[in-house]
Amino acid sequence: MEVAAGYAGELVRAAVKAHRRMLESASRLTDADCRRPSLLPGWSRGHVLAHWARNADGQSRMLVAAMRGVVTAQYPGGDAQRAAEIEAGAARPARVIFDDARAAISRLEDAWRQMPASAWERPTAARAGTRPAWLSAWARWRETEIHHVDFDNGYTHDQWPAEFTGLLLPRVLPTLQARLADQVTVRAEAADCNLAITAAAPRAAGDLVIVCGPASAILCWLLGRPAAADLTVTRAGQPWTVPRLPPWAGLAPLPAPPRRARRPCHHSGSTATLP
Fold this sequence. Notes:
The chain is an alpha+beta fold. The chain folds into 2 domains: about 5-155, Four Helix Bundle (Hemerythrin (Met), subunit A) (Up-down Bundle); about 165-240, 2-Layer Sandwich (Nonspecific Lipid-transfer Protein, Chain A). The chain has helices at about 10-25, 30-35, 45-65, 80-90, 95-115, 135-150, 160-170, 175-180, 215-220, and strands spanning about 125, 130, 185-190, 195-200, 210-215, 230-235, 240. Strands 4-3-5-6-7 form a 5-stranded mixed sheet. The longest helix has 23 residues, at about 45-65. It starts with 7 loop residues before the first helix and ends in a 36-residue tail after the last strand.
């Protein structure tokens, strides 16, 4: 599988499977659970679930418009609308939030099924910028896997599908240099797939800090989520603290993975039609 138009069907199926996993986790949340903090600063689990639902509606809105040959913004009211809807949604009882999310997902999956082949390359006005409609599937898969971890309810980075980690990690690694908060030079190494990058913060000095661990743990750290327990961090051969990174907003389009001859973190598949 690749993040490419020819793999839209496989990306949709992966996103649908991720939906099922997160719905299963969300179905067990009580009102008290929804009020507890998530891994996102300032957001409860209810906020995460409400955002997940509204993101699905935004995706559906863009796809339905693309079917008509027009471009509609993911959030017509901009970030103010997005924030207000999340706050309002998070304040409701757990069962209401869950039912709303399940209905929003149903609408999105219906839109995926109804998309004619000719519409997948049409432009959509996502919050991150203009993109072809087929990227909806990858964006939604990414959104679901990351926010499932944010629930902090038992689903962790080491449960991410290897295919997901393999597709996202090479795209996030190049963002390291711009996000180093300390004046250090860091080498991040994914030990289980021979993928690494060295990045220096402005005015960096001193010995190289090496952050090594499973690909999923490296990715989780780069996404700004806790993963220190699964990482080995050294400086000049001595144990060191995990370098601080600012929150990962995930708004800008991610760069394509660098070309490399090393063993990839995932296995490529064949093209597939939409379900």
